Amino acid sequence: MLVAYATAHGYGHMTRLCEVLRAVRARAPALPITFAGTLPERLVRREVPGPLTFRAVAADAGLVQRDALEIDERASAERCRAFDATWEERVDAEAAFLRDAKARLVLADIPALPFEAAARAGIPAVGLGNFSWDWIYRHLAGREPSFASSAERAARAYGDAALLLELPFAGDLSVFRRRERIGFVARRPRLDRADARRRLGLDGRPAVLVSFGGIGLPGLTPALLAREGEFRFLFPGELEVDRLDAIGLHYPDVVLAADAIVTKPGYGIVTDAIAAGTRLVYTERGDFPEYPIMVAEMAPHLACVHVGNDDLRHGRIGGAIRRVLALPVPPKPDLDGAERAAARLLDLLG
User: Fold this and answer.
1) Which of 105, 269, 291, 333 is most buried (most C-beta within 10 Å)?
2) How is residue 331 annotated by DSSP?
């Protein structure tokens, strides 16, 4: 059995982990897979075909967000302290689960606890990611010193990893003793652009997807953007899972149908945009150390324009959209990271 653990910090980690599991399933249809985490089970099952066991368990504390753009550092530190207070019991419980389930390999994106649990269970653990929580927490410890102990605990657990499958846009991953770069893991559209636009009922105006993950940006409403009538905005309320299922669409198909996306730059939406060849208007996302790396390294692969938080929150985004629509779309990079990851995992499984 392969047991895959997902951090609760955003859907981007879930979607790329599921892409790897899809590739594993394609190569090894009979392999038992368990997905462990606190993300919505229904979304996971939509992404990974075939039999799947779902284990609802918190594998890390992540961060508390006020909204999609602001981290609540104090609340995050308190959550980390509470999680760490029960660390030993959690590790013991996961190690017992892995032994009882006869798991042969752990894959984690990228909570630290499963690495220590796998070591106690005597099985290898592989990481998947472009950042690790020790790096994030060390950065935040400059203002909230209690993050330092969470960073040290995570670093010790990551030290038990057999391997890290390193993705682009990588931060400091030196805590992993062995790393292999696999390239982009990215979701691809399943329909062509004309069909996706038809199913969404889009007209001839440029379509702009407003995408701020599961947390959202409550103040950015259709009423706020009503003055930008030359664009057709797609808001989260129109893109609920039930509606997309009813019209036969997958979220990457929506990304393909859009002419531009307004978002914060995270791995999931950025690689969705790269795979679809869709332009990006992005804004800053607080003092999150992944942000400057993402901004610097996504530009060669993506037509993108920055808009400030204040302009975004007040709906002043028309100029940025017009500028990004005028940019050429760069050639797509190699997007076969999921296939390489799957091959590597199956090698480790023998």
Assistant:
1) 269
2) P
